[in-house]
Amino acid sequence: MKVKICGITDVSTAQAAVKLGADAIGLVFADSKRKVSLDRAKEIVLALPSEVKKIGVFVNENSKEMERIASYVGLTHLQLHGDESAIYCESLSLPVIKAISFQGNKVLAAMQSFPADYILLDGPKGKYHGGNGTAFNWSEVQTAYLNGKKLILAGGLHVENVEEAISIMNPYMVDVSSGVETNGVKDLVKIEAFINKVKTRKVGGE
């Protein structure tokens, strides 16, 4: 099971998260309290091993500007939280993670033909696009609608509930941000506990 730590804003936290077992780092370029500058993001990316996914989070960004940012920073994936269309996504040069807030399976059904390599299921929208750290009812999700796409599960995950979430959803990756923070700052103790819970979970819950 892969783990993404999102909302990273400094090199030391990024490096520590990877050493603890994170497979992907999320860098936010949309309006957010975790927004990172391009120069800082590039610094973070250059400090990470090549095999780690460097995922840029955007909301309704101009495609040419996003491609410019991705090239400058060294991103490997684009995570889109806005109203980006299928045609828009098809035009991009990097793998696309299309994020949607789970509001029923009709939305999932519509995503079956959407040109994205990954679908990220998030909780309800908060002040900013993206989740607000609130989980949704995983049991309601009909994951069969996502056949052929890699599912990334986000929204209110933390060390106490991630094992249950995985057992129900069986995602390709779990994505956490506020669930590994203390007073709005990434907490390495919480990151380690979260990653260990995911990585040491036995198949089938055995």
Question: Can you describe what's shown?
Answer:
By secondary structure, this protein is α/β, with parallel strands linked by helices. The protein has a single domain (2-205), classed as Aldolase class I (TIM Barrel). The protein is built from 7 helices and 10 strands. Strands 1-2-3-4-5-6-7-8 form an 8-stranded parallel beta barrel. A two-stranded antiparallel sheet has the order 9-10. Helix 1 (11-19) runs parallel beside helix 2. The radius of gyration is 16 Å and the shape is globular. The mean pLDDT is 92.
Provide a quick synopsis of the model.
29% of the residues lie in helices and 20% in strands. The protein is α/β, with parallel strands linked by helices. The protein has an 8-stranded parallel barrel with strand order 1-2-3-4-5-6-7-8. A two-stranded antiparallel ribbon has the order 9-10.
> Which CATH architecture?
Alpha-Beta Barrel
Give me the side-by-side strand order of the main sheet.
1-2-3-4-5-6-7-8
Helical proportion? 25-40%
Quick one: biggest sheet?
A: 8 strands, parallel, barrel
* Name of the CATH homologous superfamily: Aldolase class I
CATH class: Alpha Beta
* Overall pLDDT confidence: 92
What is the overall number of helices?
A: 7
Q: How many distinct domains?
A: 1
How would you spell out the order of helices and strands?
Answer: EHEHEHEHEHEEHEEEH
Strand content: 15-25%
Shape: globular
CATH topology: TIM Barrel
SS class: alpha/beta
Low-confidence stretches: none
- Cα(first) to Cα(last) distance is 15 Å
Return Rg in Å: 16 Å
Strand segment tally: 10
